[in-house]
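Q: I have 173 residues here and want to know how they pack in 3D. Can you give me a structure?
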Amino acid sequence: MTVTTSPTGLGSPQRTQLERLVTRARAALEADLGAQAEGRFGIHVDGTIEDEETLPDDASDRATRRDLVEIIEHIRSLGASQADAVARLLREAAFTHLNRLLAIRIAEAIGLLPESLTNGQQSRGFKDLGEIMPILGDDYWGYLLLCGDELAADAPALFDPRNPLLALGGSFR
């Protein structure tokens, strides 16, 4: 049986190139999220979790941290080491963020959203929002969260704002 690719489908070299891109993007996200987990939440890649009292007194960050630590404890209850549980948390957070960004880009490409990622902060959708709501004109990450809110009805699991993994990306701004 021969498998053929449609004229609009990806060929093998394109699939390989896409796989490499996704792997590099996920690795970059994991590294950035690891730095944020350590800096904001006292959760280190080696599995060390700092005492909550040593962290800045930010009620929102502390609540998110408790959620993240609870996730780590759940992963540990499944048999993972502390370091492996933190690594899995970061991997899943990177996966979530990457899937959200890809969904926003696809929605942009098919016309469900205005240009939002193609030209980054120079994208038409972000510039238009800045003209309408100048207070949001410097908050590109906030804009992307609004894009996610637009898509939440169609993909609620992917765009659930209560997902504590999303808080790790809160300083991508």
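Q: Anything worth noting?
A: The mean pLDDT is 87. Residues 14-169 form one domain.
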